[in-house]
Amino acid sequence: MLLHFIFLVKEEELEQRKWEFQYVEKMANFYKTWIEKTFSQKVDVQSDEMIVRSGGRFRILDTPVIMEDHVNRGEDIFHFYLTYFRPMWTDCTCEGYFAENFGMAWWQKSPQKDDVNFLMEKNCTKVSHELSHEFLRKAKYKNYKELVHEIWDKHLFAALPFEYYDANNKKTEKDPLFATLDTSSLKQ
Ligand SMILES: [Zn+2]
Asked: What's the pTM?
């Protein structure tokens, strides 16, 4: 299966956000390994930018427009959109949304250039939340929503630390590059 990350970026911000897309490319490779370890699923990954031009139809964006893009690209591919806006509606607790072979998460713009830590804490973690929903659903778990939200609540309200990984996708405490929700109760 192909997991395709699509980083939405406004045309006028293309250059200044290049470093964020470079992070997304590394993150995609990280999630390939993470998904295999956590959900025993082999995936190929791809990442691309989607440039949003002013006046274009993507300028006023919400989830249905993104869903339509997913359908047009092919529903057998898992498209994961990293958007510069929050989903209009979601029952997720993390400003993301998922459906069959579909994920999206509000990718918060770092206030500072090259602040990889910000991307890791604010955005990478959200991606793991939505991926977990969808891979648990694929594995026929009935409680694929509740399971993830129980863990997420512990991160938000009970000081449960995220899991941290280094540039070689190994668990680490020092100089991490990626962070995910706690997977100890999810391992399959
Ligand atoms: Zn959720």
From this structure: 0.95
CA of 177 to the centre of ligand 1 (A): 23
What tokens does 186 get? 């999810």
Quote the ligand 1 centre to 170 CA distance (angstroms): 25
Cα 95 to averaged position of ligand 1 atoms, centre (Å): 8
Residue 49 CA, distance from chain mean position = 14
Q: What span, in angstroms and rounded, lies between the C-alpha atoms of 113 and 110?
A: 7
Which two three-digit tokens encode residue 143?
A: 């409680």
**Residue-wise pLDDT tens digits, 94-151:** 999 999 999 999 999 999 999 999 999 999 999 999 999 999 999 999 999 999 999 9
Q: Which domains does the chain have, with CATH numbers?
A: 2-180 (3.40.390)
Largest CA distance in the chain: 46
Compute the CA torsion angle 90, 54, 71, 86 (nearest 10 deg).
Answer: -10
